[in-house]
Amino acid sequence: MSIATSGLHHVTAIAGNPQRNADFYLKTLGLRMVKTTVNFDDPGTYHLYYGDESGRPGSLMTFFPFDGAPSGRQGTGQATTTAFSVPEHSIGWWKQHLESVGVDAGRVHNRDGEDALTFRDPDGLGLSLVAHPQGDPRAPWDNGVVPAEHGIRGLHSVTLSVTQEEATAGMLDGLGLRLVSEEGNRFRFAAGDGGPGAFADVLVTPGAPQGMVAAGTVHHVAWRAPDQQTQANWRQELVGSGVNVTSILDRQYFRSIYFREPGGTLLEIASDDPGFTADEPLLELGRALKLPPWLEPSREQIEAALPSLNLPSENNPETMSA
Asked: Which of 126, 155, 172, 217 could form a disulfide with 177 if both were Cys (CB 3.0 to 4.6 A apart)?
């Protein structure tokens, strides 16, 4: 294809209790709540966006939290690990920090020259903190909870678990990712110039069970398109190559198209524009429930159906509004 992504836009997962989810990603991982809204396809459920100061593409982890949702099963046909990028000197600090709040971080391991720390969030979602030896120039969210020198810089990579790699590799190649390393049953692909935020690892596990999407699993992985016109052109190319692609959907802060790669993982191409300041100022991101114009007439009913959620009343997430 003539169009190629520059890297990851966001990863969206399913969670259980929304307050527990917010507490972990704001207070334990030190991310910013950049948008509090609802699942546009199911407005009785929150859609919570975490990221850096402005929610730049490539920094975003988002959740649909269903209070009381059953646990899913991680397996083939889905993204099984979401990795965040941290400074090279910070892995030891993060191990100590996670263990101090009761998170089992395991041991530090090295792969592709990168130190990594793997753990799970309160719903069992597979996460990793990875230190790239060439560093990561992106700025962290400086919130006073995690020291800025150790703060998460954004997404590092996703791991797609499949039963065989050929067809998935072909799809990634069509998105502009190239194979850059291979270690046993793990194949690393890179978008653009490579580096943190531009990696996808394909893990081949033929005997593993099929994944089941519910709490503690990834719903979809989104790749970047620089603008909406490029996205529309990309959709035409995908349709022309026989891929079953959705229409372009308005997600208020970006536009989206969805399709599955042959291994089963749901993928999205999301536009970089218009961004999260489309409906609230930068300094106030994430503090109030925002609804798109077509749901605003139902605000009263939507708010009544949503579970209570204490949000930061200022930039320090230790200060939560009642």
From this structure: 172
Question: 1-12: per-residue pLDDT in tens?
Answer: 678 999 999 999
Residue 70 in domain: yes
> In this structure, what token pair is assigned to residue 307?
């579970």
Place of tokens 């159906």: 305
Nearest to 124 by CA among 32, 212, 228: 212
Domain with residue 282: its CATH number is: 3.10.180.10
In 3D space, the residue among 299, 302, 267, 313 whose CA is nearest the CA of residue 8 turns out to be 267
Which residues, in sequence order, are CB contacts of 188 under 8 Å at separation 6+?
112, 157, 179, 180, 181, 182, 199, 200, 201, 202
Q: Please confirm whether the linkage preceding 274 is cis (ω < 30° from 0).
A: yes
| In-domain check, residue 223 | yes
74 residue type, one letter: Q
What is the spatial distance between Cα 117 and Cα 149, in angstroms, rounded to a whole number?
17
Single-letter residue type at 260: R
pLDDT tens digits for range 249-303 = 999 999 999 999 999 999 999 999 999 999 999 999 999 999 999 999 999 999 9
User: Could you tell me if residue 317 is inside a domain?
Assistant: no
**Residue 291 near residue 250, CB atoms below 8 Å:** no
In total, how many domains does the chain have? 1
Contact 302, 295 (CB under 8 A): yes
Residue type, 163: T
Structural domain boundaries enclosing 102: 8-305
Residue type, 237: E
> Would strands 266-271 and 217-225 be described as parallel, antiparallel, or unpaired?
parallel
* Closest among 38, 35, 59, 37 to 49, alpha carbons compared: 35
Residue 247 CA to residue 183 CA, distance in Å, equals 37
